Amino acid sequence: MPSPPRSSTRAGGQLLRTVGLLVPIALLLLVPLFTNRGFYRFEVFQGMVMDNLSVLVAAVGMTLVILAAEIDISIAAQLAVCGVVAGSLSRAGAPIAAVIPVTIALGAGLGLLNGALVARFGIPSIVATLATNVLLANGLLWITKGMWVQQLRPDFQWLGMSSQAGQVTFFAAAVVVVLAFGFLLSRTTFGRHFYAVGCSHEAALRLKIRPQRVTLWAFALLGALMGLASLIHYCRFPSIETGGGVGMEMKVIAAVVVGGTAITGGRGNLLGTVLGVILLALVGSVLAFTPLGSTAERAVQGLIILLAVVADKVLKREDAAHA
């Protein structure tokens, strides 16, 4: 019998990955029925959404980087640096209208630093970003002596709005980011360059795509989104913790990989990333309402990553067999 068309095979694989995320999400939502029904309160879901908006924004940027067959493990340090700088500017009297663009630009600059180390100097991304992670995290600790940034301007927390209005604004900002980058990846030539570079640098060059430039863009856009994520994360509070965001890179990378983006690059989409963020957010929240408690969250995240990578390998073999 003739093999099915390659496009239909890919569509089937994508549908399978989507269903494979929706099923565990549905099962997780059922778990508290048997453990603690206090989970089904509006305040719990509201808190879960707000706690993970910065993760979602970061995961959008990480999707670009992983699609280009790279990785960035310095994002938690970027988040902390951007947050401390934003808070310091506010404490010095800068209005929030000035703090926002400066923070996003700082994040883009940190991303460009990583991109230059990878694209221009040929350092493997995991090594380059490990180095910048250590440099940024320890440099920040040395400069701040671990002291929190306090005495911020009134317009810093919730951008000077009420708590309710601030939450709506942050949620809307995250949705706009997802939609904008979803359009970028699926509807523009520039977005398709990330897939091309992730599949093969040599093939990309034959298509007159410059892999170094695409890599720089991927890291710079991730950095800019980390600047935005830091504002969403820190502008909820009246002071800024200098060590905030610890372990964020694990959750973000897990969400992207679980969402179906191949860790080797070249395949993935933002719908999967969004579902991956939802899945991991539910894992943390549901565990808090079980006897295991939230201390098991990191272990469960690691298990989910392992299962996702194994499933990805199996699906890739099936795709290759039908190619």
Tell me what you see in this structure:
With 323 residues, the protein is mainly α. The chain has a single domain (6-322), classed as ABC transporter involved in vitamin B12 uptake, BtuC. 73% of the residues lie in helices and 0% in strands. The protein has 13 helices and no strands. The chain has helices spanning 6-30, 32-35, 42-67, 75-91, 96-119, 125-144, 163-187, 189-199, 201-206, 211-234, 248-258, 270-287, 297-322. Helix 3 runs antiparallel to helix 10, helix 3 packs across helix 11 and helix 4 (75-91) runs parallel beside helix 6 (125-144). The longest helix is centred in the N-terminal third of the chain and has 26 residues, at 42-67.
Q: Number of helical runs?
A: 13
Q: Into how many domains do the coordinates divide?
A: 1
- Average pLDDT reading: 90
- What is the CA-CA span between the terminal residues? 14 Å
Q: What structural class do helix, strand and pairing data support?
A: mainly alpha
CATH topology: ABC transporter involved in vitamin B12 uptake, BtuC
| Beta-strand fraction estimate | under 5%
Strand count: 0
Low-confidence stretches: 1-6
**Architecture in CATH?**
Orthogonal Bundle
Shape: globular
The quaternary structure here is: single chain
Order of helices and strands: HHHHHHHHHHHHH
Helix content: over 70%
Rg calculated over all Cα atoms: 20 Å
CATH class: Mainly Alpha
User: Main sheet?
Assistant: none
